[in-house]
Amino acid sequence: MGAPMELAAGLRQSTPGCLDGEALIEAVRAVARGPLAAVVEDCDRKGIYPESVLRELGALGALGVHHDDRAPLGQSGTDADFGLAIRAAAEVSRVCGATGFMVWCHQVCGVYMEQSGNPNLGGDVLAAHMLGRTLGATGMSNPMKTFAGIEQFLLKARRDGQGYVVNGTLPWVSNLGDDHYFGAVAALETDTDEPPREVMFIVRCDAPGVERRNCPSFSAMEGTNTWAVRLNNYRVDATNLLADPVRPFIGRIRGAFVLLQTAMGIGVTQGAIDSMWKVEPQLGHVNQFLEDRPDELQAELDELVARIMKLARMPYATDQEHLISVLDARAQAGELALRAAQSALLHAGARGYLMSSDVQRRVRESHFVAIVTPAIKHLRKEIARLSKPVMPQAVAA
Ligand SMILES: Cc1cc2nc3c(=O)[nH]c(=O)nc-3n(C[C@H](O)[C@H](O)[C@H](O)COP(=O)(O)OP(=O)(O)OC[C@H]3O[C@@H](n4cnc5c(N)ncnc54)[C@H](O)[C@@H]3O)c2cc1C
């Protein structure tokens, strides 16, 4: 990755040291309630991409605390903190679900780069990513759904010298810009007697063979810079390779991928609860007859967050019980976001039905939490598959 390398030169010396722990959460909350809140309506209604906010979050450290080596943040010797990364992203989602989603896109792209062990994607390149000086994304919905038997691979790779060339189109990849990059997977063309095999790599938007096309309008998430991406003989080699073979790599990072995404559900739920309390002084006398009151939802959310924080202590665990718990937490985050956003609308009444209201925006954001990969239906399918008892080998009759 050429440009990020240049940007990263001298990075370690110039980083004064980002924030950690509660100080980071406080600072992220200030950015969310200040500069992000100021543009959230434009993001939603006009599709304005809040790039400066993402870069500010990176400078604070919010995009890098889940990495094993936190030296680029000025935090050498400090362990990766997935719980803190999730809490930071949840504070962003509480104000703007679309920006919270892009924080996840970037955070999870960092996971791909770090866990790949590819030196071309580590070192100063990863340092620039962790600080939000370069911006990354993820095109992994299609492979995740394909591995779950829901879809088929949309990108195809063929061997070419020491590397591969890739062709195909991904219909939606968010958080993209001219010099951004994202992780993707292509199915390798194999002989019929070979087992299926894939290759995972970074796509740079400014590389030859990469074409972005506009997506149709969405009901929300318009500020996410979401594009269809067409690859024409895109070259994959040692400079951008993430994993080959892919399946063991995905097996190792799948829990982290899903767990980080819970932040969006937590934040959208908390934002909905916040808006219910705002109308309580005027409407509490009648809202008390509604279900899913803010105190009830808060208790459920707190219990869920406590469970997620426990799971976040072992983000790369691969045992079945852990994985089912992660999938279940992600599904619950989606379901709670749906219920909370709907209840907030019932609590707010007509004032929540205005196009300018954060309450109705959050209803649309909660729909996205429920349908983005892994969608609730996808999560339930995976939980059912993993929970199936292993039958003893059938005895031949
Ligand atoms: C705003 C937005 C941002 C997204 N950002 C990302 C991202 O950053 N990275 C990423 O990997 N994925 C992204 N996705 C894709 C998302 O995670 C899902 O994979 C996608 O919404 C399809 O899931 P599904 O459950 O509808 O698929 P299914 O219900 O299984 O649908 C079956 C198939 O039909 C296709 N399909 C359905 N409707 C249409 C349509 N109108 N036009 C074209 N195809 C259609 C779907 O793509 C899918 O392949 C984004 C989607 C949206 C709406």
In the CATH scheme, the class of the largest domain would be Mainly Alpha
Main β sheet profile: 8 strands, mixed
- Work out the number of β strands: 8
Q: Could you say which small molecules are bound to this protein?
A: flavin-adenine dinucleotide
Shape category: globular
The second-level CATH architecture of the largest domain is Up-down Bundle
The H/E string reads HHHHHHHEHEEEEEEEHHHHH
Q: What is the radius of gyration computed over CA atoms, rounded to a whole number of angstroms?
A: 21 Å
In CATH, the topology of the largest domain is named Butyryl-CoA Dehydrogenase, subunit A, domain 3
Proportion in β-strands: 5-15%
Low-confidence stretches: 1-14
Helix/strand-derived category reads alpha+beta
Number of domains: 3
CATH homologous superfamily assignment of the largest domain:
Butyryl-CoA Dehydrogenase, subunit A, domain 3
Mean of all residue-level pLDDT scores: 94
How many helices? Answer: 13
Q: Termini distance?
A: 59 Å
* Helical proportion, percent range: 40-55%
Tell me briefly what this model is:
With 397 residues, the protein is of the alpha+beta class.
Topology:
Layout: H1 2-8, H2 11-14, H3 21-46, H4 51-60, H5 82-95, H6 97-116, H7 123-130, E1 136-138, H8 141-147, E2 155-160, E3 163-173, E4 181-188, E5 198-204, E6 210-214, E7 227-236, E8 241-243, H9 247-287, H10 294-311, H11 320-348, H12 358-371, H13 376-387
Parallel strand pairs: 1-4, 2-4
Antiparallel strand pairs: 2-3, 3-7, 4-5, 5-8, 6-7
Helix pairs in contact: 1-7, 3-4, 3-5, 5-6, 5-9, 6-9, 9-10, 9-11, 9-12, 10-11, 11-12, 11-13
The structure holds flavin-adenine dinucleotide.
